[in-house]
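Could you please review the protein record set out just below?
***
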Amino acid sequence: MKTVKKLLFLLVLIWVSGACKKEEIDKREDGLSLEYKPGVIRVEGAWEEVIVTADESTQIYTLNKSAFNQQPRVGEVILVPGEIMHKVKAIRPAGDYYEVEMKPAALTDVIENGTIAFEIQPEWSDASSLRIEGKEMLTKGARLSIAPIEFNMHVSGVDHKILIEPRVKDGRIDSCAFRFQMSKGNSTAFEAVGTASLPRQKILIYIEEGKLKEFKSESSGMNATFQVHMATAGGNSGEHSLSLPKMALTFPIRAIPTPAGLVPNPIPMSVEVGVQFVSQMTLPDAMSSASAESSVSFSALGGFEYKSGGVVPAGDLSKNEIKDGKFDSAAGFGQPVDLQFGVAFPRVSFNIMSQEVAYVHVGYTTGSRLQWGPLCKSGYSKVVVEGGYALSALGQTISSGKTTFKEVVKRAGDNCDG
């Protein structure tokens, strides 16, 4: 009888333990609840006291021995809050340090069960990185101030002027004014001038038994108003695509808002807000010319939801207004002209470590065109909300794709297609 009672007691204990564990990992709509996998080494303390050197190109790190109770082993994951989430490939002692060769780990290599859920709007002063054409403009540990960001660059024969001025509202910086200028000699010039807000980012990651069960990413509050001017004349003949710089601000997510207040985030995550440009022109000879100008105002959102059935995109333009379009082009008889310029701003991405998990951008393209047979002059302006995802950082190596959420086109001049 006693044996039966003991057996019943053990069964009840096992059931309660399983029920409690399931309750702990139930999906939450906000907050942080994590159960780590065996073999994850969580390093406490400030990253400056742990990381001596880091070479991201070779993935070789020098780490302080004092940060570890014992030497990490090959295959284990080292987690330094906000900085490192890597698997050890090779390691050797070097005096007071470890020299460690590593590779990025997926979140499912680290988390057995858990939820990471939050909604944030990046703070201007929290930006830890400013990169222009891949070059870091901020020193390690530096932060942006209320002062304008201004750079003059010369890349592949093109002069660039970049000016971004933060704007303060109710004691915080939630938007900026900007001016992007590009010119090539006296032949070609582009300019985009306007204002844009810092977007909001909403994230849900739900992992159960070491597998990704659900992922949501939504970028909203992507609001901007700007004008675009462009012109080309007397340049080299042929088809051209100017080399235009990419620019991005990185905002690390070091704490997650919960109903009880901010909680430190152990997983290296960030939101990146950037700008990208495209250009294309066809000029038959040095006497050809084209020009265009227009303005746009928009409010957009976009994102993705992953469940076992696949990935579902969702996005829209809740506001879009294109106006003040002026287009012109000229060339010798029978010679076509085509001038196009586009800017993707803002481009918002959610990253784990340096891996982009999901992005959304609002692109604005305008163009001026001359074609023959019959003679036809036209211009267009287009707003498009696009996005993409790659879930390898979440343990889903085959889940990737991109989509167009919404596209609005406004044309001027002749109907060259009909």
Observations:
- Confidence is low (pLDDT under 50) at residues 1-23.
- The chain has one helix and 27 strands.
- The radius of gyration is 26 Å.
- The CA atoms of residues 90 and 101 lie 5 Å apart.
